[in-house]
Amino acid sequence: MIVMKFGGASLADAETIKNTVSIIESRMNRQPVVVVSAFGKTTDLLTSILESVSAKEPESARKTAEEIGNYHLNIIGDLIVGESLRTRAQEIISDNVSRLRRLIDGMEYLEEVSPRTRDSVLATGEMLSAPLFSLILNSRDIDVCFVDPCEIIRTDTDHGRANPCMDAISVNCRDKIIPELTSGKIPVTGGFLGSTPDGAFTTLGRGGSDLTASLVARGISADLIEFWKDVDGILTADPGIVPDAEPVSHISFQEAGELAFLGAKVLHPSSIQPAVEKGIPVRVLNFHKPSSPGTLISDELTGTDPHEQAVSSVACKRNQLMVNVYSTRMLGARGFLRTVFEVFDRLALSVDHIATSEVNVTVTLAPTHRVKELETELSEVAKVRVEDGVGVVSVVGRNLPHTPGVAGPIFNALSDVNIKLVTYGGSGVNLSIVVADDEVEKAVKSLHTALICKSRGEDA
Ligand code: ASP
């Protein structure tokens, strides 16, 4: 059993959808379960409906709802053959557009866009794409069944970024997906959506269909998840900075998790967590090049095989904040770090990297509108300096602290770069440096040349 997840870009028009269908056809003997996102940029259009209503422009919201309907009618026009399938598809589209109109009327009347209503609106993308895509497969004589994601993905009531209830989801997968697979059907479901115990729509956060795929894979104990994207896999660096970046052929779960956290944009940071828990391997593949191997993410790599490359990728994040907290009260004292971190906790700010000295603690974090509050609160216990516009460049690999000779090439490559902070050794898979934003490109390029191109045997 495998789970195949397709994002909006692979379902944007008749041509990309035909390509996606043929990718699924090539995997029929592997008992696939298909998870789809909303077609094309539908979720962006739904977001703009919410913005229009909030800006008291309901007519513009209604126009966008019509646009969504026409876009879907256009897509099925080319792809669904047979009178009854076509009628069913038209009904699905008109029901969803009517529902959208009623939601717009309701929001306009109440002058309110509540988180719960927001989720109801955003749900429309996958409420359309999953049943329509099932009909498209049907009309190719593929034996599919549409599985309503709301009947599978049970969540809490945290609208907009709901938390999945793992046990309920496993039971639902066992009861509603496994029997379909056993009877030889291909279950097709929508990503991103869930429902609360009392039946309200929830969503898992933008890009949440990846998480749905992992939850389903966990629920059915799949052998593999395939994420079909518009890139070749997880790359050795951001191709915007390093044009000859290549896909990494195989990395560990831990590296993939850190890479997502450290700035690589391929996978939603927490999206593969349910798969990691069950040790289910993940492959990131390119729907433009279905025969390319992509990147395999699995637990099999240990870092102890001398043939495995120690460094797999160079990631970066720009526009971060660095907060330096200095106090002589730290000298030999205890409890000071707790006082400092309580401030971050109170302001609900998540710290990324930390370095300490005898009288100083420096952290990095994502930009926040609460920076003034942070500065004020920290100033009550210490001297504070906040620097914005810094970048974090990270070398990610396996078992770095146990691989002799890694640090030399890293720091040689950075000989021209002004390093503000270094963190290393915590997870064993990354060494991160903080530099000024305008030095990020130079640092990434030099590290990529020294660590990745050299080990590929290319001239530096
Ligand atoms: N359709 C949703 C979005 O665009 C979820 C997803 O595609 O993963 O964010």
TrEMBL record:
**Ligand binding (ATP):** K5, F6, G7, G8, K265, V266
The UniProt record lists the EC number as 2.7.2.4
Task: Extract the coiled-coil ranges from the record.
Answer: none
In its UniProt record, a GO molecular function of this protein is: aspartate kinase activity
UniProt keywords (A-Z) are: Amino-acid biosynthesis, ATP-binding, Kinase, Nucleotide-binding, Transferase
Q: According to its UniProt record, which protein family does this protein belong to? A: Belongs to the aspartokinase family.
What is this protein identified as?
A: Aspartokinase
The lineage is: Bacteria, Bacteria division WOR-3
